[in-house]
Structures are given as C-alpha cells and as structure tokens.
Amino acid sequence: MILKGDQSTIRSINRALVLNLLRQHGALGRNELAERTRLSSAAVTGVVAELIEQGWVIEGRSGPPRGGRPPVLLEIAYDAWHAVGVKVMEDALEVVLTNLRTEVVARNHVQLVSTEPHALIEQVVVEARALLEASGRSPERLVGLGVGMAGVIDPAEGVCVYSPFLHWQEVPVRRLLEEKLSRPVHLDNDVNALATAEMLFGWGKDACNFAVVTVGRGIGAGLVVNGEIYRGASGGAGELGHTVSEAGGRLCECGKRGCLEAYAAEPALLAQAKERFPEFNRHRFQIAELLEAAEGGHEGVRALLKEAGERLGVALANLVNLFNPELIVIAGEGVRLGAEFFGPMEQSLRQNAFNGLARDLEVHLDPWGDDAWARGAAGLIIQREVFARPLL
Ligand SMILES: [Zn+2]
User: Fold this and answer.
1) Cα 260 to ligand 1 centroid, rounded to whole Å
2) Which of 2, 11, 145, 280 has the fewest beta carbons closer than 10 A?
3) Ligand 1 center from residue 199 Cα (angstroms)
4) pTM exceeds 0.70, yes or no
C-alpha cells in the first residue's frame, strides 16, 4: 500500500496506532509498541514523547524485565481528559461528563424546556457547561461533546435528517453546537453511539464484526463491519425493529404492518398483554408489573414473553445470516425482560441461523444503566478526537 501524505499525516497515523494499542492491551513498554506497530524504535520514541508532552500518555510502573532493565510501561492518561455525552430524548436530556474511558464523572437528567431546535441546542450548551463547572475540571481538557439521538442522522455533516420524536428535519445540530461551545462536536444515531462505546471499551474491544442490538421502547441495531460502523447509503442501516416479523400483522408505530417492534418492543408487550388478559387492561400498566406477573407464574404472560423473545431470535438469525458477526451485544432498558424473554430468544437464534454461522457466535446481555446512552454519546467524540485514524 502506498501511503500518500505528508509527515504530519504519518505522525497522526502512528499516534493513533500507539493510542489504540494502549487502549486494547493496557500498559505496554516502548519495545513492545515497536514490535506490535512494526515501527522503528526511534519512531515509537518520537510518537510517545509527543503523547507524553501533550498529556495523553503517562509513564507508569515497570513491566517484567525482558533481558536487561525492566521496561517502563506506558498508559493512556484516562483521567486527565474528559468528554461530554448527551442523549436527546423526546422529553428529556441525559448529560454526562466522562473520562476518556467513558466512565461517568458527573451526570444530570433534565426535562426538555422545548423541542424547538434552537432552544434545545441552547439547553444542551447550558447543561454541558454546568456539569463541567460543577466537576471543577478544566475546559481546556474537554475533548469535545458527543450527541446521540434516535432517528436518521448524517454524522459526516452533523445533521439530524429526520427525528420522529422531535419532528425535526434537516437540523444542523453540530454546527449550531460548535458555534456556541467552540469545542468539537459529533452527532450520531443513539444506537451507533452505543456500538461505538462497545467497540472502544466494551465487549466489542477485540471484535471486528459485531452487532449491538437495543431492546426497549424500540428495537434497533448498530452494526460494526470490518471495524467500522456500517451505515448504509443514507445512514438508515440497522432498523432491525422495522424488519418484518409477520407480513400484514400488527400495526407498527411507523405506519406499516407486522414489524418486529410491533411484537417485541416494550410498548408492544404491554399492548398485547392488555389485549389478551383483561386483568391488565387498566390505565397505568407498566413493564415491572408484567414481569411480576411472569415471576408469579402467570402462564399467559410467560407465553407472551416467550413468543416475543422467539420473534427477536428469528430476526437475529436473519441478521447473523446476512452479516456473520462474531458477537451480538444486547443492550437497552429491555434487558430487564430477563430469562423469560432472552432464553427463548437465544434458543430461537441458534435454531434458525444457517448451519455453522451461530456455532462460535457469542451473545452477551449488557447490564443496563440509565446513563448508558449518554456514555455512548461521549464515546462518539472520544473515538473521533482521540482514537480515529486520519483519513488519507
Ligand atoms: Zn415499523
């Protein structure tokens, strides 16, 4: 491969190489970095010196001796930098301040003042500044701000193309935020934000091909193909919830019939329970009560969870046949649906996937925290500003 690029581009590539190795393997010595990057010792020493000077890397403890003196191990200075992550919801903002490992330093959850774009952007700016100030961390060490939201997003342009919840079309979120914050901003679909965070520090750290499937109010998928988020032609890839589970079946929120989401997302589970069992047909009926009924031995509810889990399993088998991932991570508040739902899901996935494709497939349920979406959003800007390789 011929690398076109000047010295500074090559330096940026080497810098990303070193930072990603330290992210994946933890502390490493200079010699080991040179071996793994296949760069010369002099080149590694140069890149490392620059990273230390700029505060990205620190020299830590000594490693096991390899012949002569024990090597000094290098680590990423995870706590020396921070990022803001924002999850925009239909009625609220979840805002977190994280370190470089997307560990939460401070967080806030606020109701939206307005869904009008300029007002909402202003609220994001106010909340981000307030969090930074309250934490006492330096604004100079803020890597930037990541925003995750549902809908069709153009991450290259930083534009929300369409948001069904906020009724936005073509809102230049990144430009509006960067003008006010004077820091880098990255906008993406919320499921892709989660997938990015999984790729950096989660189950996907060592995987090149995997899917993050979110279950909850809706069902979505973030697809990582050859180490990159797969977006499709117009940023709409991964709408797993609107793949057809039953042609001509139940009406979906999207207006079409028979979508997976109309059977297996949480609102659909509640709706079906109400239809089937009159005792649940009351105004305020919540998922917690549905799960209580299942735990209490309600056979009808258990059957409903099993059917819905199996439908998700079939959809995942189709996804496995199309993408052949090595790993599927299940995330989202729907993880609380538990074994009554995910047991049948996994069984059905393995039964229906094409011979051999699911044999080595790992399936993990991610323990869910309310700030996971916003942490994912912080991961977006950390990925872009710290770990991404420059485009040639
Ligand atoms: Zn649909």
Assistant:
1) 7
2) 2
3) 27
4) yes
